């Protein structure tokens, strides 16, 4: 609908005409009847009339809404001025005379005749509806209500206003005629009044109030809402109160008419001004409307701060008998936060849109600013309407936000930018959606972003492959025999754990680093040149160690190179991450993994030793499982290095491992031949890693097992420090050897995986063709 | 920039399909239909780890000489298929992912609408807008 700015005079004039034509009081004027008469009276060729009808959109809608009617009137005025009929000229033509409507005779006479002669068929308004003329009759008709004498007084007031209009168009006789039929109708009207009855009451109500569309509600003080909106509000099927309120208002207003009319003029001018402004912004919600919406909201959801669920809203709005598609569109517009539920503001916006739609307003593509949920108290929403905004969605946010800011200081923080401009208003909506996208993005980040996704699952999922474990066990057994690391016998379990921790940390760091370098992720790996996910093809890997391996391999040789280097590190310097490791040990692998990135290469051994020194025997069992976990996560080369010393230690502390293993497994057969314990230890490491909860029992069991199995291992915490240190040394050496072996095996595994991946890629490339 | 975007329901009938109408659209419809086979295969392939997070983004389903087909499946087995022109500068994987993400977001918005019955063709203008933003501008 084209925007239409009307002067006050025009506004009054048109509203009178509209009311005149709106015999059914539906605020929608049919194409027949008085509208056509009116147009005919404009003395324009019929094709022009048709063109006007089409331009104003009535043919599109099938009837004349208030806006269409006004546009039509304006176009009539344009046509009568001899200007070409264009939509643009609606607003651009200045000083346009009001449209003139003639019935064939002198206007004034026509008015008289129409008014006085047509009384039977019409209600209060008869005649062909002249421009200025109907208005005075309206006012005159107002007088009909009360005794003519009393009415005469108020009539003057309208008269005072009408002369403003009349000079525009009608000959000077109009005022006279006006007054004439002012008096005459009073007599006639009194006769008619009984006939008119309620309908007449309605009409007089309208006339009296002269609030134009607002009068439809019989609300004196209501300022102008969008004209059709109110009408549709009335016609809403589920909405009875307003319509019921209408008749109720009439009698009271009728009685008040005489007294009120004295105030009418002032009120009318105000209302007309507001009316014109309200007309400009068809999406504004008036106070009454908002109150009505709030009441409706309460019927569904008593808590005004609560939500209406989507299903309830659906039922409610389905009652409006709009097509589902339009309701769907309204929902999309009004559910601002896309949560599937309507807050009060959203509900009011949706209701308003439904009302507008029923009145023939087309749904906007975007939510109008005045309907945007305020996210503030209801009180503020009443302040939203602006008297003089442009049609459409321009200035309201600027005004709205100042309203909001004083009332809702807390919200100002969230909307600092909203106070600035329309663009920011828009950005708010975009922000809300973007925040949604952000949140959803985060949920998508987890799978999509390898680095963040991997770190946490790594500790749990990483386990050394069984092959590795077996190999390491073998190595360990071998190393046990070979290594004079037996002094490391009594190495507290913490050593392996810590080494593993460091190794795991390194590994994780390598993983994360490698992954960041390679930009791969589990998902990426899965999707590498559409190959199947790596976990699939690794039967040898127990848990998702393959993932880690792939990551490591994908990380490239960098980590591989680091690993041997790390392996080569003698366990001399206390690990920097020890404190973190300590935390990690207690806190779980994640902590360490996070710290690991910084500590990749140098620290496994450091960690080991510092751990050795730092941890007391009592801590050993507890750290053991955690170290296991970390070593799991670190795995590959890093873990190998850490695991090496760890495992050497473990080999020495076979009992511990066994105990831990047994503890983790739930059984405790602490003593076993050395190879077996080695294997079990490795397994137990794996098992221990995810089994934090067994730390406690493991501790005690480990200690007991250790003590039982290896006399060299200190039986108790404060037992034999020398033995402990000896076992530490042994374990470290074993760890070193095992780490080397591990790195070699990792390399082999990496190669194999690469081959596999390439084969899979080839297969994938071949496969699509099979689908064609 | 996609050449064709399709949303396919769990029962493998299309909820929404839109192509750049320069070429015969039927070819794209056929392509999308055949790509469903690949999607199904990929879904079942990861089926072992069903409980785990199955990757929603399926990646390149299959390439032909003219175009590439990318797939994405939601947790409710609603599939999104994007057909991209190969002659385009090959879009990076991340870009395709972001396109799917936007599609998914817009689709959930459509689902949230209580007036939308699941299984109906998608007629949301907002969804159309998002899709149009992703399509190749018809030249």
Automatic annotation (TrEMBL), chain A:
Keyword match Coiled coil: yes
InterPro entries: EF-hand-dom_pair (IPR011992), EF_Hand_1_Ca_BS (IPR018247), EF_hand_dom (IPR002048), EH_dom (IPR000261)
Protein keywords: Calcium, Coiled coil, Metal-binding, Phosphoprotein, Repeat
Coiled coil regions in record: 731-762
Biological processes annotated in GO: endocytosis; endosomal transport
Biased composition (Polar residues): 119-130
Domain EF-hand, chain residue ranges per copy: 322-357
UniProt feature, compositional bias: Low complexity: 147-168, 561-570, 593-623
Compositionally biased region (Basic and acidic residues): 649-659, 683-696
GO molecular function: calcium ion binding
Span list, region Disordered: 119-194, 382-409, 512-701
Domain EH residue range list: 10-97, 289-373
UniProt superkingdom: Eukaryota
Any single GO CC term annotated in Swiss-Prot or TrEMBL for this entry: cytosol
This protein's record includes keyword Heme: no
Name assigned to this protein: RALBP1 associated Eps domain containing 1
Species the sequence originates in: Myripristis murdjan (pinecone soldierfish)
UniProtKB/TrEMBL annotation, chain B:
Alphabetical keyword list: ER-Golgi transport, Transport
Entry-linked Pfam families: Sedlin_N
Single Gene Ontology BP annotation: endoplasmic reticulum to Golgi vesicle-mediated transport
Record field: transmembrane: none
InterPro entries in the record: Longin-like_dom_sf, Sedlin, TRAPPC2L
Localization per record: Cytoplasm, Perinuclear region
GO cellular component, one term: perinuclear region of cytoplasm
Family (UniProt): Belongs to the TRAPP small subunits family. Sedlin subfamily.
UniProt-recorded name of the protein: Trafficking protein particle complex subunit 2-like protein
Protein's organism: Myripristis murdjan
Gene: TRAPPC2L
């Amino acid at each position: 609908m084209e925007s239409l700015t009307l002067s006050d005079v025009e506004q009054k004039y048109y509203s009178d005409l509209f009311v005149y034509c709106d015999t059914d009081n539906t605020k929608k004027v049919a194409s027949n009847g008085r509208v056509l008469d009116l147009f005919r009276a404009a003395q324009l060729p019929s094709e022009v009339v048709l063109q006007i009808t089409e331009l104003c959109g009535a043919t599109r809608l099938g009837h004349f809404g208030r806006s269409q009617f006004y546009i039509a009137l304006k176009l009539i005025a344009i046509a009568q001025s001899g200007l070409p009929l264009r939509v643009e000229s609606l607003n651009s033509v200045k000083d346009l005379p009001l449209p003139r409507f003639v019935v064939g005779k002198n206007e004034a006479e026509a008015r008289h005749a129409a008014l006085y002669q047509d009384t039977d068929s019409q209600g209060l308004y008869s005649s062909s509806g002249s421009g200025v003329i109907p208005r005075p009759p309206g006012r005159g008709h107002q007088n009909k209500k009360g005794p003519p004498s009393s009415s005469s007084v108020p009539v003057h007031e309208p008269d005072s206003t009408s002369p403003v209009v009349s000079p525009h168009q009608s000959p000077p006789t109009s005022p006279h005629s006006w007054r004439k039929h002012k008096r005459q109708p009073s007599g006639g009207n009194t006769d008619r009044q009984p006939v008119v009855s309620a309908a007449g009451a309605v009409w007089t109500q309208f006339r009296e109030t002269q609030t134009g569309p607002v009068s439809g509600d019989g609300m004196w003080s209501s300022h102008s809402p969008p004209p059709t909106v109110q009408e549709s509000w009335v016609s809403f099927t589920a909405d009875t109160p307003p319509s019921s309120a209408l008749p109720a208002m009439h009698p009271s207003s009728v009685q008040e008419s005489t007294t009120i009319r004295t105030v009418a003029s002032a009120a009318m001018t105000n209302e007309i001004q507001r009316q014109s402004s309200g007309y400009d912004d068809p999406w504004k919600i008036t106070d009454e409307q908002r109150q009505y919406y709030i009441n409706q909201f309460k019927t569904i959801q008593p808590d005004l701060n609560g939500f209406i669920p989507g299903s309830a809203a659906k039922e409610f709005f389905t009652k409006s008998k709009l097509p589902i598609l339009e309701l769907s569109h309204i929902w999309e517009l009004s559910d601002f936060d896309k949560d599937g539920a309507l807050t009060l503001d959203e509900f009011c916006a949706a209701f308003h849109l439904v009302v507008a739609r029923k009145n023939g307003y087309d749904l906007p593509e975007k939510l109008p600013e005045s309907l945007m949920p305020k996210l503030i108290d209801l009180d503020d929403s009443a302040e939203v309407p602006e008297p003089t905004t442009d049609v459409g969605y321009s200035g309201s946010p600027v005004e709205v936000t100042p309203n909001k800011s004083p009332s809702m200081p807390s919200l100002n923080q969230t909307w600092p930018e909203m106070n600035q401009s329309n663009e920011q208003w828009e950005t708010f909506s975009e922000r809300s959606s973007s925040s949604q996208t952000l949140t959803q993005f985060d949920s998508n980040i987890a799978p999509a972003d390898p680095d963040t996704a991997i770190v946490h699952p790594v500790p749990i999922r990483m386990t050394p492959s069984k092959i590795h474990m077996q190999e390491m066990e073998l190595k360990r057994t071998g190393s046990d025999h070979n290594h004079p690391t037996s002094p490391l016998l009594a190495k507290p379990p913490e050593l392996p754990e810590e080494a593993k921790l460091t190794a795991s940390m390194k590994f994780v760091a390598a993983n994360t680093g490698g992954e960041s370098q390679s930009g791969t992720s589990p998902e990426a790996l899965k999707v590498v040149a559409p190959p199947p996910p790596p976990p699939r093809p690794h039967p040898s890997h127990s848990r998702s160690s393959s993932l880690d391996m792939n990551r490591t391999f994908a990380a490239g040789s960098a980590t591989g190179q680091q690993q041997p280097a790390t392996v080569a590190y003698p366990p001399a310097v206390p690990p920097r991450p020890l404190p973190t490791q300590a935390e990690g040990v207690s806190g779980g692998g994640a902590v360490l993994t996070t710290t690991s990135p910084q500590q990749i290469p140098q620290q496994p051994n450091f960690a080991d030793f510092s751990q050795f020194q730092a941890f007391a025997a009592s801590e050993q069992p507890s750290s053991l499982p955690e170290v296991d976990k970390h070593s799991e996560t670190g795995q590959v080369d890093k873990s190998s290095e850490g695991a090496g010393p760890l495992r050497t230690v473990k080999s020495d502390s076979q009992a511990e491992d066994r105990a831990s293993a047994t503890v983790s497994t739930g059984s405790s057969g602490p003593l076993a031949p050395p190879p077996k314990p080695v294997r079990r230890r490795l397994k137990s490491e794996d098992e221990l890693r995810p089994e934090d909860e067994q730390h406690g029992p493991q501790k005690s069991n480990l200690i007991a097992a250790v003590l039982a199995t290896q006399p060299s291992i200190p039986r108790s915490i404060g037992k034999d420090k020398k033995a402990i240190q000896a076992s530490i040394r042994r374990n470290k050496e074993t760890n070193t050897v095992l780490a080397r072996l591990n790195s070699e095996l990792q390399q082999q595994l990496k190669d194999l995986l690469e081959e596999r991946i390439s084969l899979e890629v080839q297969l994938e490339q071949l496969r699509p063709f099979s689908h064609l | 920039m996609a050449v064709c975007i399709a949303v396919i329901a769990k029962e493998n009938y299309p909820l929404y399909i839109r192509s750049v109408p320069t070429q015969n659209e039927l070819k794209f419809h056929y392509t999308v239909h055949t790509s469903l086979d690949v999607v199904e295969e990929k879904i079942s392939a990861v089926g072992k780890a069903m409980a785990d997070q199955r990757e929603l983004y399926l990646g390149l389903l299959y390439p032909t000489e003219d175009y590439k087909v990318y797939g994405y499946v939601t947790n409710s087995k609603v599939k999104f298929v994007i057909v991209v022109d190969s002659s385009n500068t090959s879009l990076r994987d991340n870009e395709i992912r972001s396109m799917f993400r936007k599609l998914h977001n817009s689709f959930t918005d459509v689902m949230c609408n209580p007036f939308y019955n699941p299984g109906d063709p998608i007629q949301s203008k907002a969804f159309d807008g998002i899709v149009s933003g992703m399509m190749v501008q018809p030249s």
